[in-house]
Design brief:
Order of helices and strands: EEEHEEEEHEE
Structural class: mainly beta
Oligomer: single chain
Number of strands: 9
Strand order of the largest sheet: 2-6-3-5-4-7-1-8-9
Number of helices: 2
Helix content: 10-25%
Mean pLDDT: 95
Shape: globular
Low-confidence stretches: none
Length: about 130
């Protein structure tokens, strides 16, 4: 049996662009993708902290060091530039893998720079 487990996350990323005319996806600074373990083309869930919208799309690589978080295509209607979002990736694992796997959680500042890297989440903490 495979379990769908939390793999990696960009916590409180700031939307820098929203492009309705792009064909789809979310463009993410390639440094953030690398550090989080999220791959270009990988399916992600995006949660908008400003309006509660939740949607899925796939990632594309943005310029390294740019801090870009650009929501593309129809999903651009679900965000505003400046909104805080959580971008979450999941992975299928067997039970043995799931018990020892540690996700990569990148806590970001307002310019999408990494403040902290965590490998677990503890209830009652906000970052």
């Amino acid at each position: 049996m495979l379990l769908n487990m939390f793999k990696g996350k960009l916590h409180r990323a700031t939307v820098t662009q929203a492009d309705i005319n792009y064909v789809g996806s979310v463009t993410i600074d390639s440094d953030l993708l690398d550090q989080s373990g999220i791959l270009p083309g990988e399916k992600v869930q995006i949660v908008n902290l400003h309006n509660g919208e939740r949607f899925e799309t796939y990632t594309i690589k943005g310029d390294a060091g740019s801090g870009v978080i650009c929501i593309n295509g129809a999903a651009a209607r679900l965000v505003q530039v400046g909104d805080k979002v959580i971008i979450i990736a999941y992975a299928l694992m067997n039970e043995e893998e799931a018990k020892s796997f540690l996700p990569n959680v990148l806590v970001l500042d307002d310019k999408n720079r990494i403040i902290r890297v965590k490998h677990e989440e503890i209830h009652g903490t906000t970052e």
